[in-house]
Amino acid sequence: MRHPVLRLSDQALRSADQAIGFLMQQAVENADCISLAAGLVDEQTLPVDLVRETVGKVLAESGSGSRLLQYGTTQGPEPLRRVFREYLAELEQRTDRLSDLPLSQLFLTTGSQQLLALLAQALFNPGDICLVAAPTYFVFLGVLQAVGADIVPVTADGFGMCPAALRETLSRLEQEGRLSRVRLVYVVSDFENPSGVSVSAERRPQLLSLAREFSRESRIFLLEDAAYRELRYDGVSPASIWSFDRDRETVILAQTFSKSFSPGIRVGLGVVPQSLVKPLSDLKGNEDFESAHLNQHVVARALKDRTYHQHVQRVRDNYRIKRDAMLEAADREFGGLPGVSWYRPEGGMYVWMRLPDSVPTGFQSAMFRRATQVDKVMYVPGELCYPQDWPARPRSEMRLSFGVQSPDGIREGMRRLASSVRWALET
Ligand code: PMP
Questions:
Q1: What is the ipTM for the molecules in this complex?
Q2: CA of 4 to the centre of ligand 1 (A)
Q3: Residue limits of the Aminotransferase class I/classII large domain (predicted)?
């Protein structure tokens, strides 16, 4: 039988062919590869016993347990938001426990991805502008593309997004009469996915001031994506950008328990300006009424019991070893190769590697084919982490993850990758 024409929305059409889908398909097709591509967390670190015990505890404590299996409230139950606020106060080193932060500004979300997606829906009509660091988290680029946003890259270096470049870009947009279309500056503040870079302490208030200064014709928000904030292996954490936002009307803070605890549990924590509470709550209500109620109780209980804290410490110890294994392997395998360089992250899950311009790394490149089909190793092509239509996007970079592999898997993966790179440099 012939079916009538399928008519999809513009948003569905703009969401087609996202890199993430292709990447997952590659992972399935090349299952015999060592994956340095997957941004998954290490299964060895997942808190199976802790979750089993904590689910038992929270169900037992709520009498029959049925309350936790019932609907809750869109932003998450207030008593739980209080627990999450206390935890945020710990991260922010606020001895006043952030008691001046109204609980109404807190959202418990389905991972932090949901807040990113809701925000894109709340702020963007097609043609509205989002400024992003170049490179940046490619899934958010897909989200922006889906809502028809105009994505404008801003230069970033080893200290994060450059304030001078942000000023220049905003001034240029103003001269072009497009400042009123700017809605958001997106910054991954800690151990950026993909570059591993954190925004320096000095730049944090500067980026915020620029968003404020240029909020002349319409409000420019700054989205601080702090997904990897808790995964620091050396050094000290700078204060969040959010902490400098005294009236709490510019920065949206997106955090998650995916990296530090469990991505499958899908619990994220957002702090949003008062002016965005209602629009985001309306959108979220339409989408899912609320995020998984039971899961929020589990994370809150682990926070209260401080079993969460012990767990995160183990996670950090595990990733520190793997980060070191990857950097040592990089020194050993890539050390002498001309024009190859990489960044040494203090945390997170990624090492960002640059090859000479003569070696493109994209899905269609000889390098990608060689790596996946001959040497049997996968990476994320760096070009995915830039806006698709940006003519200047670099094409010879790779995101390497030390998330899923064991230290031995990382060493072997890096050995294989170096073999592909040597081959590509010689051909
Ligand atoms: N932000 C960044 C920078 C990420 O890397 C990720 C996950 N890869 C997310 C947000 C979203 O993760 P989740 O929804 O699991 O919190």
A1: 0.99
A2: 38
A3: 32-387
